[in-house]
Amino acid sequence: MNAALTSLVAVFATLAGSTLTFVFQRHIARQAERFTRNQQLWHERVAAYSAFAAALTDFRRSQNDRWHLEQAEPNSPQFISAREESYQRRAEATAALCRVRLICGHSVLSQLAQDALDATTEIHVAQDEQDRARRGEKARLVLDEFLSSASPHVH
Fold first, then answer.
1. Cβ atoms within 10 A of the Cβ of 41, count?
2. b vs e for 47-80, b when ≥16 Cβ sit within 10 Å of the residue's Cβ?
């Protein structure tokens, strides 16, 4: 009887050890998956936010160029080319904004990104140099606000 009890305890201990090993391995695997997912999301956020900032900066530059060329010669080929470039830069900034919206999952951050795009879009309608400079500075500051708000999501 004593040998049977010893065998039963040994079997139970083996099963308990195997079960605990399985539970711990599963827990470790889930942690590794979460870590990998978080790392991938971090990389995607950095890429999306950086691409948006770069696209918006290029769009702001093109809006300033467009405004200056329109003031100098509104019917010139240079102005028409600058206007076309500003349309292209806006399309690129809008595409980058879409990626930000998909990746950030944060409505306030999405709205700040939209505000930055809107402020940049308004540069070319400035009435004079002072208004253009003010609008350009506003666009830069709104982008800075977006980046400051996005920063905690990538640290």
1. 14
2. ebbebbbebbbbbbbbbbbbbebbeeeeeeeebe
CA dist 118 and 70 (Å) reads 20
* Range 8-23 average pLDDT: 81
Residue 4 has pLDDT above 80, yes or no: no
The correct CATH number of 43-154 out of 3.40.50, 3.30.70, 1.10.10, 1.20.120 is 1.20.120
DSSP for 106-144, please give it: -HHHHHHHHHHHHHHHGGGG-SSHHHHHHHHHHHHHHHH
- Residue 111 tokens read as 């709205």
Q: Is 128 exposed, middle or buried (0-12, 13-18, 19+ CB in 10 A)?
A: exposed
pLDDT interval class at 50 (50, 70, 90): very high
Mean pLDDT of 37-54: 93
pLDDT recorded at residue 1: 64
Residue 41 confidence class, pLDDT cut points 50, 70, 90:
confident
**Contact residues for 146 (Cβ-Cβ < 8 A; gap 6+):** 52, 53, 109, 112, 113, 115, 116
